[in-house]
Amino acid sequence: MRTRLFLAVLAAVLLAPGASTAAQAPADEPFVVEYYYRVRWGHQEEFLALFRKNHLPILEKERAMGRILEIRGVAPRYHATEEGRWDYRVTIVFASVTAAFSPGLTDAELRQLYPDQATFAKEEQRRFELLESHWDVPLTTLSLRP
Fold this sequence. Notes:
By secondary structure, this protein is an alpha+beta fold. Helices cover 43% and strands 22% of the residues. It has a single domain, classed as Alpha-Beta Plaits, CATH 3.30.70.100. It is built from 6 helices and 4 strands. It has a 4-stranded antiparallel sheet with strand order 2-3-1-4. α3 packs across α6.
């Protein structure tokens, strides 16, 4: 669904000629992406509840399958300037760059997790309606020693 579309677009951007992040990621090492969510003011709890209900189980299933090694979530302790504000950051450590850009769960696996696909689709649409912005940052480990 949206996750597959996002991963396809992200793969096209990162794997395009001149894209340094994917080019620097060894195929057999973990690949880290940080996902930032800026939620419409006053709707943070609703967004988090929908994320926990509908997206986290997908990520956990993919972790159980070995595609994802780790899932972490944080929120800032204090507020920032409005232009620099983000409400949630989810860090996903994929097993490899290949795993990060491989297809996620199949439609059958999604239907098994969410038999009521109409409700799932409606709630996922609502989760994205709550966002002011969302951005993804694939990370590259830097050596700080010469």
